[in-house]
Every structure is written in structure tokens, then in C-alpha cells.
Design a protein that fits this description.
With 549 residues, the protein is an alpha+beta fold. The protein folds into four domains: 46 residues; 130 residues, Periplasmic binding protein-like II (D-Maltodextrin-Binding Protein, domain 2, 3-Layer(aba) Sandwich), CATH 3.40.190.10; 111 residues, Dipeptide-binding Protein, domain 1 (Alpha-Beta Complex); 225 residues, Dipeptide-binding Protein, domain 3 (Roll). The chain contains 16 helices and 22 strands. The strands form six sheets. Strands 13-20-12-19-17-18 form a six-stranded mixed β-sheet. A hairpin with a 4-residue loop joins strand 5 and strand 6. The longest helix is centred in the N-terminal third of the chain and has 26 residues.
Length: 549
């Protein structure tokens, strides 16, 4: 071809040669343009299988077992390796009174070792959860529920009392292979190699793991499960690397050792130096100041609690503590903002001062703190705010302290280690006010957090809230199978609880997931817990190809 072009070129005169080159370039450019137009109009970019992805996690797996998993590392591995009952079910049919649930499994579902998954595996899993010797974190969720085998693919679940949110139980029930655990006593499960080399039914299957001489697990290698009952995952190899802390996690992302991670605080985001994609997830959670009225005489006044609430500038707190990366909360289910309207009310120092004045609290000229005589005793308007030593909570507490000082209220901040907060202070209700968070499920079962029967350990009613109407609403919501009526009662409850001012609802932080720029298919939105960011992991992809339309 080149020889022919040379002959043609030298056949032209010197004056004709520039014209020849111009024509040649025009022809080549036009041809290239036509090719590009054809590619653009007649082909499409589609995801294709392949590639390796490495997730970084701060922490260690302990039990990669669906009914023993407790750490975030455990739950992430369970989410990748085991399918839950909602996914396995072809259909789920509740009875009219929601006391009986019929579940039929999809056909031809297999464990990653080739054994068939049947209703026997479901029943075995539930029975082991209910066995006290197993010490499953799911124990309380499955009491009073009896599974019955109807066929190889069908089971019936009967419960003593109707529970409208039982579908959440099914979603949180990842099934265990009976053929591998049935002969091992529950007390010995922690010794089973299948807790570290699991056989599952999820999108990925176990390949290998690595650990240091001191036992610290450094890496898990997973591979796309060829027996997965849904579409095979697009990413071929999914690896997880484990680190001691968030600093190591961020450093490994900056150097390209890992491709994605989550779970860092807002203060740490600025330490990410590599380009990244940011996915904000919303979780059914909120942070609030919970009042223990039994521990402080001044806080027994509803007017005092109302004034403290009125003085709070939630926008300022959200900006200071979270850099604006979250949503304001004004009630226990504000995260359902499109469905449940939050309680009304805006921050106002003028309103807060007026409320306190009308309730008889006067500024002491020497201390600048409000004071009132209660039962012939001069009571200062002050209390201690217990705060876990978490940076954004400390920032929140300092902002609250400053805002309350403007209305003549003194709040002393008591910083305590996070572990002590949960294991000692909350357990014994040893606080006057505490800044803490609640994590619900998306269906908003508030019973454990606000029902009067849950005022003391192991209940989670941190304000020791006691309201007969609220109790009735929470019980009705739990038992009412009519979603429309539940929604109306939930709206009523969302207004009722803040109106009693047992707590000051502040904000719901975003949960951020950071990944390399060329990972596609991640869907952000509302998730129950951090591990649920992998709920559509089989649709994630790294590679693309062009195909004819």
C-alpha cells in the first residue's frame, strides 16, 4: 500500500502534491468520522464480567457464621457469602392476622459445595438461633416463633403474637448449611473450620484467607459463586483486607492497596488524597440528647426540656459536627421524611427564654445561671451531659453547651470511653443526660426504644419514657397488618414523643462509602446497616465492552 501511494505521489507535479495530501487527509478524516459515528450510533457500552476488587475493613472477623456474626467484618462477609431468606423465597404469604407466614423457596438453589439448599436448612437455622447454648445475637428476634416443614421447599412459621414487621426478620435471616453443622454441638461451633472457611449460598464463595503469626487475619479472597441462584456477579474476584484502625485503612486506599472502604468519621475524609467516588447512604438512625429525669430535679420539668430543645440550632450543629453531611432529626422516625412529617418547631433563643421565664426560672446575677425554688430549695438550672469520646459527638456537645449557656443553662460535659458508655453507663442508666444514637430498622419498630416496658436494661428506652398512649400506639403498630393504618399511627407517634420532650433529636449522619473511580453499579440509598451497602454487589462491575445495538 505504501509503495503504491509513493508511486501516485511522485506522479504528481510539485504544485499538485499539496492538493494530493489535502485530499488524502480529508478522505482519512471523513472515514474516521464515519467509523466513530457508526460506533456511537450502532453500538452501546455494556458491563462485562471480570476484574478484581479489594475492600478494606477496620477490624477483624470472628465468626463468619450467619447466626453468630456480631462484628461489622463478620456481617460484611456474611452478606457476601450467604443469601437471606427473603432472597431465597419464591413467595412469602402472611395470614390475615399476621400470626402465620408461609414461605416457599425458589427451586434449584445449591450451597457453594454443591449440596442442595432445602427447607431443612431453614428450620435448622431457626432452631439453632432459638437455642440458648448457641448464644446467637438474633436470639430475641426469634423467640415465640415455631418453624414447621411442609415440604422440601415449603415451611410455615407460626408465632404466638402477630408481628407486622416480621418481614424484617426474614431479611435478616441468612441461612446456615445443616449438613455441615448438624453433628457439631452448638457449644463447639467456635472451633468449627466452617466459621473461617464458610460454605454459603450468596453471590460469592470462599477461596482462601491469610493471617499473621499472631493470628490477625489480613486478607480474605472470595470468588464469584458459580452456583449462585441469581445472575453471576460481574466482578470475578472480591477480596477483603483487614486493618487495625481507620488511619491504616485510609493510607492503604491512598496507595492503591485497596479499592474501597467505609466507616470513617467526617473529620477523616480530608485525609483521603486519592481521587474517589463518594456514595452517601442513609441509615434508620438518629443521634439525640436523652434525659434521665430521675437523676436531675430540674430536668423533671417539661418546660425546661422544651426550652432546651427550642434553643438548639440544629443547622449549626450539623455543620459543626458533620460538615453538613447528614439530615436534621426532629423525631424518632425523621429518616422517613417523605412519608412521616417531622414535629414542627424551630430554634429560637427568644422562645426558649420566654418558656423558662414563664416557668419561674430566673437568672442568678452572680452566676448567670437560672435558678428556681423547688420544694423550698434553690435549684440551679444545670446538669451533666455524658458524651462518648467520639470526635463528632464531642463537637456536638460543645455546640449544645454554648447554645444552652445563652439561655442561662449550665451543661457540664462528661467525656467517657465508648465501651464504658455501652457496658456501664447505659446499662445502669447512670447519667442525667446522654448524647447517644439509636439505630432502628426501616419499618420503624420503636418498641425497644420508647415503650415503657423497655425503660431498664436490656431495654433501650434511654429517656425512661412513660406514656400510656405512646405505649398503645407502639403495640398497635407492631401488631397491625394494615400498612396504611400503621403509617397513620406512626405519624401520630412521631408527633407525640417529641411533644413530651423526653429527648432532643438532633441529626442522622450519612454513612459514606468511598471507592475507586472506575467501579460502577453501586446504588446508594436507605440501608439497614453498613453491610447492606453490598446488597446489589452482583451488579457491580469494573469492565465494559461495546456491542451492536
Amino acid at each position: 500500500m505504501i509503495t503504491i501511494l509513493k508511486k501516485i505521489f511522485f506522479a504528481f507535479s510539485r504544485g499538485e502534491r499539496p492538493v494530493f495530501w489535502t485530499a488524502l487527509f480529508l478522505i482519512a478524516g471523513s472515514s474516521l468520522g464515519l467509523i466513530l459515528i457508526f460506533i456511537t450510533q450502532k453500538t452501546a457500552v455494556v458491563p462485562t464480567s471480570g476484574g478484581d476488587y479489594t475492600e478494606g475493613i477496620a477490624g477483624q472477623p470472628a465468626y463468619i457464621n450467619p447466626i453468630l456474626a456480631s462484628t461489622e467484618a463478620d456481617k460484611i462477609l456474611v452478606r457476601l457469602l450467604f443469601a437471606n431468606l427473603s432472597e431465597l423465597a419464591d413467595n412469602v404469604t402472611p395470614s390475615q392476622n399476621a400470626k402465620t407466614w408461609d414461605v416457599r423457596l425458589k427451586e434449584n438453589i445449591f450451597w457453594s459445595d454443591g449440596e442442595k439448599l432445602t427447607s431443612d436448612d431453614i428450620i435448622f437455622t431457626i432452631q439453632k438461633i432459638r437455642d440458648p447454648e448457641t448464644k446467637s445475637p438474633l436470639f430475641s428476634s426469634w423467640q415465640g416463633i415455631t418453624p414447621q416443614r411442609m415440604s422440601e421447599l415449603e415451611i410455615q412459621l407460626k408465632m404466638a403474637n402477630p408481628y407486622a414487621f416480621f418481614s424484617e426478620n426474614l431479611k435478616n435471616l441468612h441461612i446456615l448449611p445443616k449438613h455441615l453443622f448438624a453433628e457439631t454441638p452448638a457449644a463447639n461451633w467456635n472451633l468449627s473450620r466452617y466459621n473461617l472457611q464458610p460454605v454459603g449460598s450468596g453471590p460469592y464463595a470462599f477461596a482462601s484467607y491469610e493471617n499473621r503469626p499472631d493470628g490477625f487475619i489480613t486478607r480474605y479472597r472470595l470468588k464469584a459463586n458459580p452456583r449462585y441462584f441469581k445472575a453471576k456477579p460481574m466482578i470475578t474476584n472480591f477480596n477483603l483486607e483487614f486493618f487495625s484502625n481507620a488511619g491504616e485503612l485510609i493510607q492503604s486506599f491512598n496507595t492503591g492497596q485497596i479499592d474501597g472502604f467505609a466507616g470513617i468519621g467526617p473529620d477523616d475524609i480530608s485525609n483521603i488524597k486519592r481521587s474517589y467516588e463518594e456514595y452517601p447512604f442513609t441509615m434508620p438512625s438518629y443521634y439525640a440528647v436523652f434525659f434521665n429525669q430521675n437523676q436531675n430535679l430540674a430536668l423533671q420539668s417539661g418546660k425546661v426540656r422544651e426550652a432546651l430543645d427550642a434553643a438548639v440550632d440544629r443547622n449549626a450543629i450539623l455543620a459543626v459536627a458533620l460538615g453538613g453531611k447528614g439530615n436534621i432529626s426532629r423525631g424518632p422516625v425523621s429518616f422517613l421524611s417523605s412519608d412521616i412529617q417531622p414535629a414542627s418547631g424551630t430554634a429560637s433563643l427568644e422562645s426558649a427564654n420566654r418558656i423558662l421565664d414563664s416557668d419561674g426560672w430566673r437568672i442568678n446575677s452572680s452566676s448567670s445561671i437560672r435558678q428556681k425554688r423547688i420544694k423550698n430549695t434553690a435549684v440551679d438550672l444545670k446538669f451533666t451531659l455524658t458524651v462518648p469520646q467520639v470526635s463528632f459527638l464531642v463537637d456536638t456537645a460543645k455546640e449544645l453547651q454554648a447554645e444552652w449557656r445563652k439561655i442561662g443553662v449550665k451543661a457540664d460535659i462528661d467525656l467517657v470511653p465508648l465501651e464504658q458508655t455501652a457496658n456501664d453507663i447505659i446499662k445502669n442508666r447512670n447519667y442525667q443526660a446522654i448524647l447517644f444514637g439509636n439505630v432502628l430498622n426501616p419499618d420503624s419498630d420503636l418498641f425497644a426504644f420508647w415503650h415503657s416496658s423497655q425503660r431498664f436494661y436490656p431495654g433501650l428506652n434511654l429517656s425512661l419514657y412513660n406514656n400510656a398512649k405512646a405505649d398503645r400506639l407502639m403495640t398497635d403498630i407492631r401488631q397491625n397488618p394494615d400498612a396504611s393504618l400503621r403509617g397513620k399511627e406512626l405519624s401520630e407517634l412521631q408527633a407525640l414523643i417529641p411533644n413530651d420532650h423526653p429527648a432532643i433529636f438532633l441529626y442522622s449522619p450519612y454513612y459514606f462509602y468511598f471507592t475507586r473511580k472506575d467501579l460502577y453499579g453501586v446504588s446508594s440509598g436507605l440501608i439497614d446497616e453498613p453491610a447492606d451497602r453490598f446488597q446489589n454487589v452482583s451488579e457491580w462491575y469494573l469492565k465494559t465492552a461495546r456491542v451492536l445495538k
